[in-house]
Write a structure and sequence with these properties.
Blueprint: E1 2-3, E2 9-10, H1 18-30, H2 32-47, H3 54-79, H4 87-107, H5 113-142, H6 146-165, H7 179-182, E3 184-185, E4 188-189, H8 190-208, H9 210-220, H10 222-227, H11 232-258, H12 269-279, H13 291-310, H14 315-341
Antiparallel strand pairs: 1-2, 3-4
Helix pairs in contact: 2-13, 3-8, 3-9, 3-11, 3-12, 3-13, 4-5, 4-6, 4-11, 5-6, 5-11, 8-9, 9-11, 12-13
Length: 342
């Protein structure tokens, strides 16, 4: 309660617009990305007649689906205080494994190619899980930074994929395999449906499960998490395995879309995934971030790239814009964290 000059008494906070103003500022700061996204969408609606159409919007979803699946796994990894740079090479080796397994089993007469490709998909997921397990084990056992481990694995896995494929695309895939990457259900691209399912799954895990809370605790303060009974090593290993499995899923989608496997697939995808996570407000320091933020970050990048393409902006200029976006997003997140600590 506050006393006024006239002697009357007012409830605190009702005599000015200060608290309301502060609330508006906080709300704007919290949803700055969504506001910028809305501005871009409105501007592009007037700038290009082909932007706000069903076909173009579905095209944006389809294009962001493959990197998007990885981005949700990367969100878990970064919130846990780590990073994985090897996911692009996992995308590549997945397509190669699926194609080679399918071709070898079919040519040897063990089973028809239409069935053999399923075995190839299973094998690729097992390999991806083992890569994540290895990364997590080295990280936990020897305390080597995940940046170094996964940077090394990025080159190792790309090399293995190139050796296995002998430097050429592997095209021994059955015709029905194309449905994963190019099929539709009620005119909605299957990759877009898979993206939304992955988003929902990771969203529930990170927001409504004990494991999700453990990931935040481990990323925020590993020692405090350990003292509270959380198995820090196990949490980090599960996160590293999860992002690899999602990279394998993306590898299946891209190889299905182009009906081949190549060691060139996935190059640079780690930067797109990490960009989406950072733009969505997840802190590289760990412990802070939201799956929803990553989803908005993905849409933001997808809309921006699509807009620049429709406006015929030079491809190299697009790289500059994306790089500046990452820098600005990191600065915004850092400033917000500094304000919270004050």
């Amino acid at each position: 309660m506050k006393s006024t000059a006239s002697g009357t008494v007012k409830p605190a906070g009702t005599n000015s617009g200060t608290s309301s103003s502060f609330s508006w500022k906080r709300s704007i700061n919290k949803h700055v990305l969504e506001i910028i996204l809305a501005v871009i969408v409105i501007a592009m609606t007037f700038a290009s007649s082909g932007f706000l159409t069903t076909d173009n919007l579905l095209n944006i979803l389809r294009n962001m689906a493959m990197q998007g699946c990885i981005a949700f796994g990367m969100t878990m990894v970064i919130i846990a205080g780590e990073i994985d740079l090897s996911i692009g090479s996992t995308v590549a080796i997945t397509g190669v494994i699926v194609g080679l397994t399918s071709g070898k089993l079919a040519s040897s007469g063990i089973m028809p190619m239409s069935t053999a490709v399923i075995v190839g998909i299973i094998v690729s997921f097992i390999v991806a899980g083992l890569i994540g397990l290895f990364n997590g084990w080295i990280l936990s056992k020897y305390k080597v930074p995940s940046f170094i481990i996964t940077l090394a694995m990025l080159n190792v896995i790309y090399g293995i994929a190139a050796v296995l494929s002998k430097g050429f695309p592997v095209t021994t895939l059955p015709s029905w395999y194309n449905v994963f990457g190019a099929g539709e259900v009620f005119s909605i691209p299957i990759p877009a449906i898979i993206l939304l399912l992955v988003f929902a799954f990771v969203f529930v895990i990170m927001n409504y499960t004990k494991f999700g809370r453990s990931v935040y605790a481990v990323g925020g303060n590993p020692e405090s998490a350990r003292l509270s009974g959380i198995n820090v090593a196990r949490v980090k290993i599960i996160c590293m395995v999860s992002v690899q499995l999602l990279a394998a899923l993306s590898g299946v989608l891209i190889s299905s879309q182009v009906m081949s496997g190549s060691f060139n697939f996935g190059k640079g995808w780690e930067m797109i995934a990490i960009s989406s996570v950072i733009i969505g407000g997840t802190s590289l320091f760990g412990g802070v971030g939201k799956v929803w933020g990553t989803f908005i970050g993905l849409i933001f990048l997808g809309v921006l790239i699509n807009a620049m393409t429709l406006l015929n902006i030079n491809e190299y200029v697009q790289y500059i814009v994306r790089g500046l976006l990452i820098l600005v997003a990191v600065l915004i997140t850092t400033i917000q964290l500094m304000k919270k600590r004050k």
